[in-house]
Design a protein that fits this description.
Order of helices and strands: HEEEHEEEEEEEEE
Helix content: 10-25%
Strand content: 35-45%
CATH topology: Jelly Rolls
CATH class: Mainly Beta
Shape: globular
């Protein structure tokens, strides 16, 4: 039991502490230990660990569906406007999977200022992450100011259709 408490505490610290980074960085978190590199902050967490996020943040919007391959008029989607009220960090938790066997999902997630249309933070992830595999994709947005209105734009960067779904948490 003590080991579970320590593991849970480390996971919460990793999830919440990563939101304070000044620049985007890559980090994968499996149910074991975090590993870092340097492009976008990406975490793969288990379904059980998603429950840990809930007490510290709440979902501000949902986005999901099917995006056609890049270049199609249906290769992107945009959420409705939402306001970020907490300075605890802003993240997207969800899944993505290519419809074509042998192809891999490649989506870009842009957090956009609803007032001026400028992208505040942009993250992409190449890979299939499925809740069926007991994993979730977690992307942490940086440079986010609270009390402003935003929307999330999700764009398919790959050539084949992708199904995806997730929530933005703040």
């Amino acid at each position: 039991m003590f080991k579970n408490i320590i593991t849970t505490s480390l996971l919460v610290t990793t999830i919440l502490g990563s939101a304070s980074l000044a620049n985007a960085a890559t980090q994968e978190i499996s149910p074991e230990l975090p590993r870092s590199s340097a492009k976008t902050l990406v975490n793969s967490i288990s379904k059980n660990d998603v429950q840990v996020i809930a007490p510290y943040s709440s979902s501000v919007t949902y986005v999901g569906g099917r995006l056609e391959g890049t270049g199609s008029k249906n290769d992107n989607t945009k959420t409705s406007k939402f306001t970020l009220k907490n300075s605890t960090g802003t993240s997207y938790v969800g899944w993505q999977r290519s419809e074509k066997s042998g192809a891999v999902a490649h989506l870009q997630y842009d957090l956009v200022n609803a007032t001026n249309g400028q992208t505040v933070s942009s993250l992409s992830y190449y890979g299939d992450v499925s809740s069926d595999d007991n994993n979730w994709l977690k992307l942490v947005f940086n440079n986010v100011v609270t009390t402003k209105d935003y929307y999330l734009v999700v764009k398919n960067l790959g050539g084949y259709p992708v199904n995806f779904a997730g929530n933005v948490y703040n």
